[in-house]
Each structure stands twice: as structure tokens, then as C-alpha cells.
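Q: I'm building a small set of examples for a reading group on sequence design. Run inverse folding on the following structure and report the sequence directly after it, with nothing in between.
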């Protein structure tokens, strides 16, 4: 089973379907693409600052180790080590970048793959958001929207059971 953190963009769309389509699922754990193609992965995920730091670090290491055969061999090993470190931290970097852009954690999704995790998350998220939308419509235009700060952003287990700590609610 794969675990995904689900992020919702800061600008709320009025249409619930548009909000569901704007959700971003970030896989937790190791990233193989970030290991195999670290620079391209950073560019693809639009992590510009991390990409610049990655290039700066590699450039500084190449300069410090020099053009000798031993230096180049050491540089190759250090580059591999940096790529492995990046692969372990890549998805956390992506989540932090989303949070800096104003995205809020909407919940956690669990499934054997992304499609199954999305489906199980949306099965719990959509009914909850529909009821919130009805409450907002009934309470009028001056009502405060329910969000994570008001207790409305509870995390749900992927199968739809509400969890308190380690135990499902009876």
C-alpha cells in the first residue's frame, strides 16, 4: 500500500468538481524518478530553488575536488550520494513547496496505486465537502467557512472510517 498526502490549493473554486480536480496527491517515501534523474525531476516538479542549490552543490564539489582522476572518482560517488539523499527527501521537498504556495493538507490517501488512493480519498472527501457546502449555503454569506483551523479539516482513513488516534470511532 502506498500513502499519499493530499493538498488542496489556496483558491477555493465554487464548483466542488473543480476543487476535486485541483487536489494534489504527493506520495510519501522514496522517489525513484528523483534518484534516476534528480535534476530533471526537480525541474519537472518546478522546484527551482532546490534545482539551483543542487547545481551549485555539484559545481562546488567539482571545483573543490579538481580535475584529477581521484577527484573525479570521488565526485561521482558524492553525486550518487546526493542523488540518493534527494530521492529520500524529494517528496517532502515537494510537499514543503506546495505549503509555501498556500496549499493546505486536506487529508491522507492510502491505496495500492495512485488511482485507487484517489478513489478512496474522494469517497470520503466529496460527501464531507458537499455537506460543508450545504451548511455554508444555509448559513448565509457572512458565515465563516469550515476549514482546518475550525476543526473541519479532519484527516480520514482511506476506507472512510474516522480515526481518533490509533483507533477507529465505534
Amino acid at each position: 500500500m502506498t500513502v499519499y498526502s493530499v493538498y488542496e490549493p489556496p483558491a477555493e473554486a465554487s464548483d466542488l468538481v473543480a476543487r476535486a480536480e485541483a487536489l494534489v496527491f504527493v506520495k510519501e517515501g522514496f522517489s525513484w524518478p528523483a534518484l534516476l534523474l534528480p535534476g530533471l525531476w526537480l525541474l519537472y516538479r518546478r522546484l527551482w530553488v532546490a534545482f539551483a542549490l543542487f547545481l551549485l552543490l555539484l559545481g562546488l564539489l567539482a571545483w573543490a575536488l579538481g580535475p584529477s582522476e581521484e577527484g573525479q572518482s570521488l565526485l561521482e560517488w558524492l553525486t550518487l550520494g546526493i542523488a540518493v539523499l534527494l530521492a529520500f527527501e524529494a517528496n517532502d521537498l515537494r510537499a514543503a513547496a506546495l505549503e509555501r504556495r498556500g496549499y493546505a493538507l486536506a487529508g491522507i490517501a492510502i491505496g495500492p496505486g495512485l488511482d485507487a488512493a484517489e478513489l478512496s480519498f474522494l469517497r470520503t472527501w466529496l460527501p464531507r465537502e458537499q455537506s460543508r457546502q450545504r451548511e455554508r449555503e444555509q448559513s448565509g454569506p457572512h458565515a465563516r467557512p469550515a476549514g482546518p483551523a475550525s476543526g473541519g479539516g479532519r484527516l480520514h482513513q482511506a476506507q472512510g472510517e474516522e480515526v481518533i488516534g490509533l483507533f477507529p470511532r465505534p
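The chain has one domain: 2-168.
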